[in-house]
TrEMBL record:
It comes from the Bacteria. The lineage of its organism: Bacteria, Pseudomonadati, Pseudomonadota, Alphaproteobacteria, Hyphomicrobiales. Residues 52-300 form the ABC transporter domain. This is Amino acid/amide ABC transporter ATP-binding protein 1 (HAAT family). InterPro entries: AAA+_ATPase, ABC_AA/LPS_Transport, ABC_transporter-like_ATP-bd, BCA_ABC_TP_C, P-loop_NTPase. PROSITE patterns: ABC_TRANSPORTER_2 (PS50893). It comes from Rhizobium loti (Mesorhizobium loti). Coiled coil: none annotated. GO terms for cellular component: plasma membrane. Pfam families: ABC_tran (PF00005), BCA_ABC_TP_C (PF12399). One of its GO terms (molecular function) is ATP binding.
Length: 310
């Protein structure tokens, strides 16, 4: 059964002319307002801006500089990959984008709204979904229920309604399950819909995580090492699904990856981190030939399980 064309509320990439991105943000900082944790500190009104942009992000843990003066801009509809050797700051960056960490310096602009710290508890309402480096599934629940749980934030029925299965809750539950079924079909997971998630092979569990994030129809999908620990075949399969998801739903994807080889054919643009600094930000071909990137990866080439180097 084909997926219905959801009203995703996404921004169509075609609605944004390239020159709009070239202009970037206004040179003057956004108007500052009293800052509260997780509250916007300003907005960039009247300017067609990237879906996501980071400006001057700095983050330290004690004496360890995890991120230093990172700028990053993500256009609607693109697959934006962040790579770097171990300890380069990739996970710290995705944790800043998703509001898990508050940066010491700089700010995050999401859909034109500027945050000192993205409100992580409102991430889903902001249209952002993420997966985690380490699997975060409900291992004792079925695949179908795991995927439907990605819509839990939308369920509006009260506790009594959910327990008694009455009123709006029954309809909401039916709707969640039906949308979960559609995403399972899209990601070729229907055959395992009733299996307990924890009993699936690792590669399939990672795909179930992708399904759970996708079912929320996110405008921005953050994938933290979605191919980590996979075989070469599973990685290439996952890359195909990520691209298909972007094409089908026009979801903007920010993807963190350690293995450079697998993201070359998948990414529109790649940012490279090394010791918390951004050392390159370009197309895959340009990154592949960038001497600073080659130098950063020298000595860790053996970590690349595909042995593909860069
Ligand atoms: N919670 C933390 N407490 C202390 N130091 C941390 C913490 N998180 C990250 N760091 C340090 O910050 C630096 C960047 O780590 P981060 O995990 O962001 O890198 P990474 O590129 O994701 O690495 P990997 O590929 O190994 O996952 C490292 O030196 C790391 O030890």
């Amino acid at each position: 059964m084909p997926l219905p064309s959801y009203t995703l509320g996404v921004m169509e990439a075609s609605a944004y002319a390239p020159e709009v991105f070239a202009r970037g943000l206004p040179s003057s900082p956004p108007e500052q307002q009293p800052e509260a944790n997780g509250e916007p500190i300003g907005s960039v009104a009247g300017v067609a801006s990237p879906l996501l942009s980071l400006q001057g992000i700095g983050l330290s843990f004690g004496g360890v500089v995890a991120l230093a003066d990172i700028d990053l801009s993500v256009r609607p509809g693109e697959i934006r990959t962040i790579i770097g050797p171990n300890g380069a700051g990739k996970s710290s960056l995705i944790n800043v984008i998703s509001g898990v960490y508050r940066p010491d310096r700089g700010h995050v602009q999401l859909d034109g709204v500027v945050y000192a710290q993205v409100p992580t508890q409102r991430l889903a309402q902001l249209g952002v979904a993420r997966t985690f480096q380490n699997l975060a599934l409900f291992k004792g629940l079925s695949v179908l229920d795991n995927v439907a749980s990605g819509l839990a934030y939308k369920v509006r029925s009260n506790f009594a309604g959910q327990v008694l299965g009455i009123g709006r809750s029954r309809g909401e539950q039916r709707d969640s399950l039906s949308r979960a079924e559609q995403i399972l079909e899209f990601l070729d997971l229907t055959a395992v819909r009733d299996r307990l998630a924890g009993t699936l092979p690792y590669g399939l569990q990672k795909r179930v995580e992708l399904a759970r994030a996708l079912v929320a129809e996110p405008r921005l999908l953050l994938l933290d090492e979605p191919m980590a620990g996979m075989t070469a075949g599973e990685k290439s399969e996952m890359a195909t699904f990520v691209r298909a998801a972007r094409d089908r739903f026009a979801t903007t994807v920010v993807l963190i990856e350690h293995d450079v080889g697998v993201v070359m054919g998948l990414s529109d643009r790649i940012a490279v981190l090394d010791y918390g600094r951004k050392i390159a930000d370009a197309t895959p071909d340009e990154v592949r030939n960038d001497q600073r990137v080659i130098d950063a990866y020298l000595g860790v080439a053996s970590d690349n399980e595909d042995g593909a180097g860069i």
